[in-house]
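Practice problem 4.
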């Protein structure tokens, strides 16, 4: 029996394991993604709008990550990190680090691809704890039908879609 547990104001299905997508083609997944929505978190609190994530494959099999957003004062906030595949059978489970010290990446966080359009036009990224979550897309906006499908997938994964806050992509330029 699945039990819904009330935690931190969120109704989440924490007894059912999150399921990743069956396979991710990393070449198709890399490139620029627009953040459509996210569960608010402390490390993005400065991001007012135009949040993006850009991924590129490295020769060593890892992935370069560049996250950007515009802060309230109009300045670009950018952070670079690295991701490594932790489930090579699917490429859907990764660990990401944005902290480097003496060339060593520290503080790895889960990055699980739990929803992905067949044409790689949108993705849902989550964590086993359901504390973090992002909806990403290749375009700055998604239509209502796709959003409804994503909300259904979030619910199936034990997330509450209402925990996700829509990201502003207003007046978006190619480079924020």
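Answer key:
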């Amino acid at each position: 029996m699945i039990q819904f547990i009330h935690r931190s104001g969120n109704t989440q299905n924490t007894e059912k394991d999150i399921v990743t997508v069956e396979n991710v083609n990393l070449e198709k997944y890399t490139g620029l993604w627009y953040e459509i929505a996210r569960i608010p978190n402390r490390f993005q609190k400065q991001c007012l709008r135009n949040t993006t994530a850009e991924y590129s494959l490295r020769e060593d099999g890892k992935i370069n990550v560049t996250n950007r957003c515009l802060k309230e004062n109009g300045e670009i906030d950018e952070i670079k990190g690295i991701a490594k595949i932790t489930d090579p059978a699917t490429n859907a489970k990764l660990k990401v680090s944005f902290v480097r010290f003496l060339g060593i990446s520290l503080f790895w966080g889960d990055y699980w691809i739990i929803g992905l359009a067949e044409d790689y036009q949108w993705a849902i990224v989550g964590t086993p704890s359901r504390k973090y979550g992002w909806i990403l897309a290749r375009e700055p906006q998604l239509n209502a039908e796709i959003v409804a499908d994503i909300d259904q997938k979030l619910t199936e994964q034990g997330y509450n879609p209402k925990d996700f806050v829509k990201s502003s992509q207003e007046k978006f330029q190619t480079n924020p």
